[in-house]
Design a protein that fits this description.
Pfam families: YjbR. It comes from Actinocorallia longicatena. This is MmcQ/YjbR family DNA-binding protein. Helix 1 (about 5-10) packs across helix 4. The protein has helices spanning about 5-10, 45-50, 65-75, 100-115, 120-125; strands at about 15-20, 25-30, 35-40, 60-65, 80, 90-95. It starts with a helix and ends with a helix. It is α+β, with helices and mostly antiparallel strands.
Length: about 130
């Protein structure tokens, strides 16, 4: 299953990506000035909202295209993907890093990067 080293390697392999400390000094990966993936430990309010379903272990937040994609990911694989009330109405999904394979993580992070990358950079990346 995926590790933080995989996340870092995948993110930094995409053009224009930088890594910097975000909220609480957790790493955030950005393209230009827009974040597309970040470490997102659960806070007390998240734990209270999730109750007994609150996951343990490392959690990654990833930007998605829209709420429909977010809902589809959660419906398709709720053992990996979830959300919290803080992200209601926001196009991002949380995932249990230890439950996702590197290939699926690469695809998800590439899509996240594409949602945030400048159009010219995204076009170059896609070979067009």
């Amino acid at each position: 299953m995926a590790t933080w080293e995989d996340v870092q390697r995948i993110a930094l392999a995409m053009p224009g990506t930088t890594e910097r400390a975000g909220h609480g000094d957790q790493p955030t990966w950005r393209v230009g000035d827009k974040g597309f993936a970040w470490e997102r430990p659960l806070r007390k309010t998240d734990l209270a909202a999730l109750g007994d379903t609150a996951p343990t272990g490392p959690i990654l937040g990833v930007r998605v295209q829209d709420e429909g994609v977010k809902s589809a990911l959660i419906a398709d694989d709720p053992d990996v993907y979830f959300t919290i009330p803080h992200f209601d109405g926001y196009p991002a999904v949380l995932l249990r890093l230890e439950r996702i394979g590197v290939e699926e993580l690469t695809e998800l992070m590439t899509e996240a990067w594409l949602t945030r990358a400048p159009k010219r950079l995204a076009k170059e990346f896609l070979g067009g």
